[in-house]
Predict the 3D structure of the following.
Amino acid sequence: MRVKILTIAAALVLSAPLLAEVPLDPGSTATVRLSPQGSLAYPIQPAPPHAPANFGAILSIDIDEPGRYHVAIGAPGRVDISRDGQPIVSLGQQDGAPGSGIARVLDFDLPAGHYSVALSGMTAGAVSVSVSR
């Protein structure tokens, strides 16, 4: 009976949306493994996914110095930043140069604080993400 209860509990945990944020330090680049969007608990729900671009990730950044920050992603997709459940509006975006490994760069003015960075609308695999000033 105990094994059956543990099996059911494990199935429930595995089917629950992922709540964890992967920390990303400003000034660094990380390669992030993507998950199916349906398995992620986004702080703000992204646009409905369209296969095969239905993968994403949830990251977090802690900003110590307020200023303009650039978020670069290495594959086509969407980037949304939020703080305390409120979206932060991008100041603009640019496409990366051909062959640079950067698909898009978005600019944000960020006061000091903790932010969620939601990636969505990407194909399966992994993506490089960087946050810089």
The first helix runs from residue 2 to 15. Residues 5 and 11 are 10 Å apart (CA to CA).
